[in-house]
Amino acid sequence: MKKKQFAVIGLGRFGGSICRTLSEQGMEVLAIDIDEDRVNEFASIVSHAVVGDSTDENVLKSLGIRNFDHVIVAIGDNIQASILTTLILKELGVQHITVKATNDYHEKVLKKIGADQIVHPERDMGERIAYNLISNNVLDYLELSDKHSIVEIVASERLDGHSLLELDIRARYGINIVAIRRGTNVIVSPLASEIIRKGDVLVVIGADEDIDRFEEKVV
Ligand code: ADP
After folding, report:
1. Could you tell me where in the chain the CATH 3.40.50.720 domains are found?
2. pTM for this predicted structure
3. Which positions ≥6 away from 61 have C-beta within 8 Å?
4. Is it the case that residue 14 has pLDDT exceeding 90?
5. Residue whose CA is closest, atom 11 of ligand 1?
6. For residue 103, pLDDT beyond 60
7. 124-217, what's its fold?
8. What is the ipTM of this complex?
9. CATH topology for 5-119?
10. Intra-chain end-to-end CA distance of the chain, in Å
11. How many CA atoms lie within 13 A of 9 on its CB side?
């Protein structure tokens, strides 16, 4: 597989964490920040770290930003700089742009100017933690749309020893179990004959209301 090339603009907590993880995963990362101290901090972590103002089109051009597969704009509080940077990246024809939004107004503008992916780290993490707090059985949650999700649910005593066929989950609840995690083992696309054990992590996909019904009745 061809190594993907990433550029991360803004090395605060969010951008910094993205840089570290991408580098740990062996990805090529160009880190850019206007602050020299931040850049020095990342010099030994990423492939290249440079000081630069991303609102200056010439800076981005001279870095060859157009050739990167994916650019992440992680400028926090300076909304104006975040918007201007995204606009320039878009105009330069960058393939895929992910931007951190600070509030709804910021998100609206980013959508209008064509950011491919907009993330709200604090809000999204808050939602995840809230789901965890509500249900002891829900480990993780990924929103697919405002009505559909993928949820990781821990199988309770009630499911223990029953096969997927017996439980007939798809017909009864309209949801699908796409994988089962059992210890370090992952069973992808489990067969109908698969027997569920207490403590298995069920990776479930479906409409939110159907997943809720399943959780209430069975888990
Ligand atoms: P977080 O909330 O993720 O910690 P911060 O607001 O602390 O975010 O960090 C944003 C980073 O973006 C800072 O390191 C800041 O120096 C950098 N930054 C702000 N404006 C620009 C710009 N125009 N060009 C490059 N980097 C910038």
Report:
1. 5-119
2. 0.76
3. 92
4. yes
5. 10
6. yes
7. Alpha-Beta Plaits (3.30.70)
8. 0.96
9. Rossmann fold (3.40.50)
10. 40
11. 28
